[in-house]
Amino acid sequence: MQSIIQRIKQSARRLGITDAGPLVILVLFLLLLPLATPRIYATDEVQYYVYLRSLRFDGDLNFENDYRRFAELNPRSGIEGSLLQPDRIRQATGLYGNIAPVGSAIMWAPFFLLADLGVHLARAVGVGVEADGYSTPYILAVCYASALYGLFGLLLSYRLVRQYTGVFAATLAVVTIWLATPLVFYMYVQMPFAHATGFFLTTLFLTIWHATRSRRSLRAWGALGLVGALMTITREQLGLFLLIPALEALREYWLLLRNRPRLPPIRALFGHHLLFLSLFVIGLLPQLAAYQILNGEPRPAGEVSGKLNFCSPHFIDTLIDYDPRPSNWCVPAEEAVARTPAWSRGAFLWSPVLLPALVGLAWLWRRDAGLAGALLLGFLAQTYINGAFGTTWHLTGAFGFRRLIECTPIFVVGLALLIERSGLRFGRGVPLVVALLLIGWNAGLVLNATIFNGETGLRRGLSWPDLFRWQIEAPLKAAGKIGEILFDRCRFLENARCE
Fold it and tell me: How far is Cα 53 from Cα 145, in angstroms, rounded to an integer?
């Protein structure tokens, strides 16, 4: 990889590009794009998508026909047994529920509408493509929009970390966190989830906050409010990142009140915060309206709120589930206790790169304690809320620990500082080799989860010691199926529509 980076740097210099990091990221993104599997298959993806399809083609939020059509297209996807069950009908409205937030649909909307325009133009010249929201152009539009938002998030993460490290450390950190964690899976395999879009919005929020720390204008406060709202209605748990500007505001008020308080500065600061809150609330209105229409009240349904146990009994298990029983400080109701094998679901086990990335924040603390504290707070808040989901903290059935994907910029900063420091001591070769090993490990997990040992194996958790054998066998098996992996991946996908 180092030789590839050097060649790209040389080409970039010839083109007058002084920082080759973004170019490396873009080239890798494009090289991986042919491996993408754009489709909308099971319950989560369908719920994110149907807001767009139903509003555009039915003019309502009655999802019954959408759910039934996707169940017909994917009969073994679980839609019939989950989204279309009688207990999913809201008594107050008579509508089938949708627990997915609306933010992803809002972010995908420009691409969806552009695809819709293209379909109608194609039909006008005689091309036989259905203008129904289920045909391939619509699906491709939202899937590749999700991947594109992931790319934007990577580039913003690079921009953030370059303020603290050189090109090599920043580039290697972004690429490693991207390809050695579940982020790559949700950008290219299960594309229409909310994670890539949520990652972009979270990184954008942190970028705006960090860039305006010393002096924040009204425009910056407004941008923070709107982006914070979009971030929150894309995945509700991301709203906890708002703790960062909230604690910053409390500190500013304390300093103003302690040091000979004067009314004008306090009033000006309050005006900024009032603008932030006003635009934040305005940004939440699409979600509140959807709740009102679907549930009969402007709040989430019980499927979401009923999972929460606010003492976070699985906080530690989120990272290392050495004993997946609830922690001693929090004893939830018996029905809320999720029982999983030990050492099978923790984030540090799925993605070993995350632990050294967090350790790297120690060097950031010495250089910028404010940013280090903010990033650590954001990470702990996301870990806390995942541990509070008593019955689903383990994410069994999912690839990796996807609820921490939006913490990617945090991990990138920490890993880049660690790479820079280790590079000074051991040379660049050592962190490069370690990065390649971590990326290779995650690539093996992707192959095993999607092709070789999926529903009966890896998707149920990390199965030790079988996993070591599966990982060793994966490259050899993949070599034997390289043609199908590159050009006929449909045969590996259940209910795939190969067109």
Answer: 15
Place of tokens 């703790």: 243
Spatial separation of the C-alpha atoms in residues 105 and 73, rounded to whole Å: 21
- Rounded to the nearest 5°, which phi and psi values hold at 308? -80, 135
pTM: 0.94
pLDDT score of 21 = 94
What length is written for the chain?
Answer: 499
Residue ranges of the chain whose pLDDT lies below 50 = 498-499
Phi, psi dihedral angles at 215 (to 5 degrees): -155, 115
Chain centre distance of CA 110: 20
Residue 13 confidence (pLDDT)? 60
Q: What is the separation of C-alpha 115 from the centre of its chain, rounded to a whole number of angstroms?
A: 24
Contact status, residue 389 vs residue 336, Cβ threshold 8 Å: no
Q: Which residue has the tokens 């880049």?
A: 416
Cα torsion at 36, 42, 47, 48 (round to 10°)?
-10
Residue 487 identity: F
Query: What pLDDT does residue 337 have?
Result: 66
Each residue's pLDDT tens digit, 280-303: 999 999 999 999 999 999 998 877
* pLDDT score of 333: 60
Q: Residue 63 to residues 178, 292, 460: CA-CA distances in angstroms?
A: 34, 15, 30
In this structure, the dihedral spanned by the alpha carbons of residues 365, 367, 369 and 373, taken in order and rounded to 10 degrees, is -50
Task: Render 99-118 in DSSP notation, one character per residue.
Answer: -S-SHHHHHHHHHHHHHHHH
How far apart are alpha carbons 365 and 363 in whole angstroms? 5
- Model pLDDT, residue 263: 76
How many Cβ atoms sit within 10 Å of the Cβ of residue 163?
13
Measure Cα distances from 376 to 51, 349, 358, 369, 412 in Å.
34, 20, 8, 10, 13
How confident is the model at residue 237, as a pLDDT? 96
Q: Backbone phi, then psi, for 89, in 5-degree steps?
A: -85, 125
Q: What pLDDT score does 499 carry?
A: 47
Q: Which residues contact residue 201 at a Cβ distance below 8 angstroms, ignoring those fewer than 6 apart?
A: 103, 107, 149, 227, 230, 231, 234, 238
Please, are residues 134 and 45 in contact by the beta-carbon 8 Å criterion? no
Task: State both tokens at 410.
Answer: 């945090």
Tell me the three state secondary structure of residue 399.
coil
**DSSP characters for 218-242?**
HHHHHHHHHHHHHHHHHSGGGGGGG
Q: Give whole-number Cα distances, 460 to 185, 338, 347, 449, in Å.
A: 16, 13, 14, 10
Q: Can you give the C-alpha Rg of the chain in angstroms?
A: 23
Q: What is the pLDDT of residues 37-70, one digit of tens each?
A: 999 988 999 999 999 999 999 999 999 999 999 9
